[in-house]
Design brief:
There is one protein chain. This protein is α/β, with parallel strands linked by helices. Helix content is 42%, strand content 14%. It has a single domain (8-225), classed as Rossmann fold (3-Layer(aba) Sandwich). It has helices at 19-32, 48-57, 65-77, 80-88, 99-107, 126-130, 149-152, 166-182, 208-225; strands spanning 8-13, 37-41, 92-96, 110-112, 120-122, 141-146, 198-203. The strands form two sheets. The protein has a five-stranded parallel β-sheet, sandwiched between helices. Strand 4 (110-112) and strand 5 form a beta hairpin. The longest helix has 18 residues, at 208-225. It is globular, with a radius of gyration of 18 Å. The two termini are 30 Å apart. Pathway: Pyrimidine metabolism; dTTP biosynthesis.
Amino acid sequence: MGSKRAPFIVIEGLDRSGKTTQTALLQGRLEREGIPNKLLKFPDRTTTIGQMIDSYLKSASELDDHVIHLLFSANRWELASTIEKLLAEGVTVIADRYAFSGIAFSASKVESSASDPGTTIPKLPFEWCRAPDIGLPAPDEVLFLDIAPEQARLRGGYGEERYEKEEMQARVRQVFQHLGEETSSEKPQSERLAPGTKWTVIDAGKERDAVAENMWASVQSLVRGGLTQPVWKTVAE
């Protein structure tokens, strides 16, 4: 048995799924339980790269789709060594969004087909979107806050940023579901996006406290017990 490390937990979801609120509630629960923790938010808008992303998301600047996708990935790589160091020190890392969001949002961008203007095709291939994040620290568990886009649209602040459009969010939800299938523990480890990652779907349409309790029930044994295996890495198929 090796020395124990802390777990890496990622919280994903559509825009306005309650993700930021639930992340804060989970961190508060860890604090009350006396569990050392660190909250990271992606994109990290405090870095030079993050500031470029922030400007783009607020529609204050325009960037090529390939460029912005690579910037999102670079923003995660900026903190990769920090994540591994914190985990080794026994600090549970919680991330509000991570590589799964980067893939889901970029792979959901579409354009009109040149041969059939009435149909749309992806701007960026799914595999291309995955490639820049290969080798990043992989989470031990992803909590995916699932909510229908039409329900999320009714929540306050919807539409303030570039991707908050119902049609886009519907496509993003489909890609997230595909990522969940790729991460499923039912598949052999060699075929999984992140071999050691558990993907848990949380119904984000429920009342806030009920969502928080469901999330805690899923991660409590992980954060209390720690892990002995090395930090997993995201892999190519």
